[in-house]
Amino acid sequence: MALNEAIHQMMAEDPSVFLIGQGVKSPWYVGNTATGLLDRFGEARVIDTPVSENAVTGAAVGAAIAGMKPIVEHPRMDFMMYALDPILNEAANWLYMSGGAVNVPLVIWGIINRGGEQAAQHSQALHALFAHIPGLKVVMPSTAYDAKGLMIAAIKDKNPVLYIDDRWLYRVKGNVPKKIYSVPIGKGAVRKKGKDITVVGISYGAHQATLAYDELLKKGISAEIIDPRTVKPLDIPLILESVKKTKRLAVIDTGWKTGGIAGEIIASITEKGFQYLKQAPLRITLPDIPAPMARTLEEEYYRPLSVQSIVATIETMVRKNKK
Amino acid sequence: MKHIYSKKTIQRLYETMLRIRHVEESFVEPILSGTIRCPVHLYVGEEGVAAGTLAHTNKDDIIFGTHRSHGHYLAKGGDMRAMVAEIYGKETGCAKGRGGSMHVVDAKKGMLGAAPIVAGTVSLAVGAALSFKIKKQKNVAIAFFGDGAVGEGVLHEALNFAALNKLPVLFVCENNYYSTHMPLRDTRPYDNIFELGAPHKIAYARASGNDVLKVYDVAGDMIQKCRVGQGPAFIEFLTYRYRGHVGPNDNIQGTQTDIRPKAEVAKWKRNDPIRNLESYIARNKILSRGEQDKILKRVGKEIQNAHAFSQKSRFPDPKTLSDYVFKK
Question: For position A295, what pLDDT does the model report?
């Protein structure tokens, strides 16, 4: 509902904002996020589309180049892979290869929609792919407040912004101001203060880390929980400040381990702050395995992201070092 | 509908084609000498398509091009000096030396960019048309692409989406019968690209791209349809490039890769778009020899100035490498 409010307010404020994508007319795909938009703004600005991810995303890029501020929505980001060309060849490069002449003010909204035995093509968290590309920004909210504030910031940004959110967070409630506000892109937030270890969590990972905080305290570990909120550009200074104090770093990402954001954060902190680290940093991610189907396999696959597992992993890490 | 051509129209079509032809030919020497290094895809032989089509557009209409888009850029009113400087890689170029020949752009003239990803800009034009529809503007967007692009799925998605939403977008296929080295007969079972309009029930046509007046007529009708809300439309122009796929003669590290039959090239050269218009001009006594010479001289001078300007211009400062990644 925070997202819904953000889109309502921005479409009302700026006639160049429009929503395009699969299922924007139907709660089947995007739940309540598009509620009321069609009635209020009409079919010209709330455009449901055939399954043509490449052309539809390209059309959104073209409309942005022509001066509009489109939000192109992909209810499952697995399907968005058909749109890699307009995103990373066209949108990401257009400003640079035009020597600054033509910018692309676009929001590409990809939803990670997984669990429930949906298997490998209805589950993937592919944000690291996009974070690799110069010219793209990638934001990943974990709270209702940030869901609205980052969407508004993404719409107002003059560049292509990937807004990637996790369906597992759609039921999370939080305080959301009525007014229009932005959460600055590239600025992280300290969710919990601590002194023994810095735990960086991406999106759902930040949510889980915050839940793990109390359990860790009970075990005598004071974790500082950081939510970068943006994965490109990363708020490395914020994480580095924290690591200076805690001397330890673990990163929870909801994507895979190899070539992922957790590795990127650890590399950046190691480059800049190796001397502060008391022990090797740790990645808590999904294993390098496609998402399985059967519930037994699925439970095993997502186990690293469970609060229980996060607590145990961090406890083992810290204890090993304390001995 | 048969158009009556004013002297002004004929003169404009003629001059546009000459500007394209001669500026393209002027790149050959600097390419061979290594002064120009970026990949340059010459449009020589295909000038009729850009000149005839874009004579119907205004600066608020939006076009997108391909790797072979110098002609589109110039015919849309793009600044020649900035284009030539761009191809030399200079800071004074239309993309400040960040794009090169394949990324010519002149935003003020509605040439919003070009890209070599085959069919990659087709959907961008659809998006520009979508913006016109949302803003209720009577403008037209044009996607230029080659016969190779017809093999790309996104073209078919774009046609469907544009037809579904009745968007004011003109799809212009420049069929030059070769997708780099592959002849059309090796990439498609039939030589019938224009019929792609049929299943979408949109206006479609095929015409010679080497008869600029035909191009002018057909494109004029189709653009008008788009303007009055009867878009989209699809045109296939049959044409031919005289030079290689890239560079003057497809000389790839000493190996000649242009395998087109000499007789075929010669046949097309006998159907040259500029010569065709010159015959029409002579037959109908539209321009005197003197008037034609004056145009030719003007064009020559413009090109000479563009090269001089470009050669004098500076390369981008290495310190500015990271400029334009993001807009602030």
Answer: 96
* Pairs of residues, one from chain A and one from chain B, whose beta carbons lie less than 8 Å apart: 155
Residue B138 · residue B154 · CB < 8 Å: no
What is the block-wise mean pLDDT of chain A (323 residues), using blocks of 10 residues?
93 97 80 86 94 97 98 95 98 98 98 91 95 98 97 98 95 93 98 98 98 97 98 98 98 97 98 97 97 96 97 94 65
pLDDT band, residue B49 (cuts 50/70/90): very high
Burial class (CB in 10 A: 0-12, 13-18, 19+), B68: buried
Chain B residue nearest residue A47, CA to CA: B165
Do B113 and A62 count as a contact with CB atoms less than 8 A apart? no
Cβ neighbours of A67 in B, within 8 Å? 131
Judge whether A2-169 and A189-322 match in fold. Answer: yes
Of chain B, the percentage scoring pLDDT greater than 90 comes to 94
The amino acid that residue B6 corresponds to is: S
Q: Do A62 and B94 touch (CB under 8 A)?
A: no
Which of B154, B165, B323 is the best mutation test for A, with the most CBs of A within 10 A? B154
User: CB distance A59–B123 less than 8 Å?
Assistant: yes
A69 touches chain B (CB under 8 A): no
- Give yes or no for a contact between B232 and B167, defined as CB atoms under 8 angstroms apart: yes
Task: Kindly indicate whether the domain formed by A2-169 is annotated with CATH number 3.40.50.970.
Answer: yes
The domains of chain B, with CATH numbers, are: 7-312 (3.40.50.970)
Residues within 8 A of A (CB atoms), B 129-158 only: 129-135, 141, 153-154, 157-158
Sketch the domain layout of chain A as residue ranges: 2-169, 189-322
pLDDT for residue B3:
56
Q: Given this model, what pLDDT does residue B255 score?
A: 79
Query: For B258-274, b where at least 16 C-beta lie within 10 A, e where not — what string?
Result: bebeeeeeeebeebbbb
Using an 8 Å Cβ cutoff, are A196 and A132 in contact?
Answer: no
**Of the CATH numbers 3.40.50.2020, 3.40.50.300, 3.20.20.70, 3.40.50.920, which one belongs to the domain with range A189-322?**
3.40.50.920
Phi, psi of B151 (to 5 degrees): -80, -5
Contact A102 B324 (CB under 8 A): no
Q: Which residue has the tokens 């929609």?
A: A113
